[in-house]
Amino acid sequence: PVLIRDEKTASGRVHVGSMRGVAIHGLVSEVLAEQGVKNRFLYEINDFDVFDSVPEYLARGRFDEYLGKLLISVPSPAGEAANYAEYFASDFIKALAHAGFVPEYYRGSSLYLSGRMNKVIKTALKKASVIRDIYKRVSGSTRAEDWLPFHPVCENCGKIATTEASDFDGKTIAYTCRVDKVDYTKGCGHTARVSPYDGGGKLPWKVEWAAKWVVMDVQVEGGGKDHSTKGGARDVANHIAKEVYAYEPPLDIPYEFFLVGGAKMS
């Protein structure tokens, strides 16, 4: 079957603009089915991303200590949800069902923790120089010669936003949890070698985007039109898919935004 995919990072309340991607991919799935084309519409609740800000509607003091950690490591604001991401994903899923969209849901953490991402992680680390070249050539972004396309979780403080990986020996990577890497939380200064596999960290999102296409064999995946501009995230991911993973990128469907006061809703 044709595999259609979309995703949303569950970092807080999901605004109505996020319905755009669900509706477009969901309608593509429905029309293909009407035409007799077998397909699956998979929707990822991305719970394996960084908790980088506390929404204004939550008590800041309660959540400050979790800044820089993965969303699945942040407690639920209320109720019996397993974690922060599940709490906000629940409302989103209910709203989509009410609107008539029922994709097959899965969690981003499941890809990493199950080991399904291990092979693409290893390839990315081995071809780090190729990825650095793509970043510079396609988007004009320069990375240091020892930069690796991976964010490990610090063994000491549990943060991922503050770590920098620098050496891959085929089995482990070296990293430092930098105190001053980001302005919204501090690292602990810990240095170590860890395995990058089985949920020990994650790929940067432009690399991760291409890697997920490969792992899930995605044929259709659109996104906001900003990503598909020259040098945008989709452009970078397309090059990574082809040059690093020898994978033909999915059919793109660049779409407009919902605007509020002339600006993209957020």
Structural class comes to: alpha/beta
What's the helix-strand series? EHEHHEHHHEEEEEHEHEEE
Strand order of the largest sheet: 1-2-3
Sequence stretches where pLDDT stays below 50 over 5 or more residues: none
Mean pLDDT: 96
Into which percentage range does the β-strand content fall? 15-25%
What's the β-strand tally? Answer: 12
Percent helix among the residues? 25-40%
Q: Compute the separation of the termini in Å.
A: 34 Å
Counted by DSSP, the helix tally is: 8
What do you see in this structure?
- The protein has 266 residues and is an alpha/beta fold.
- Helices cover 32% and strands 18% of the residues.
- The protein is built from 8 helices and 12 strands.
- Strand 9, helix 8 (233-243) and strand 10 (254-255) form a beta-alpha-beta unit.
- Helix 6 packs antiparallel against helix 8 (233-243).
- The protein starts with a strand and ends with a strand.
Any descriptors?
266 residues; alpha/beta; three-stranded parallel β-sheet; 12 strands; 32% helix
What is the structure about, briefly put?
By secondary structure, the chain is of the alpha/beta class. It is built from 8 helices and 12 strands. Strand 1, helix 1 and strand 2 form a beta-alpha-beta unit.
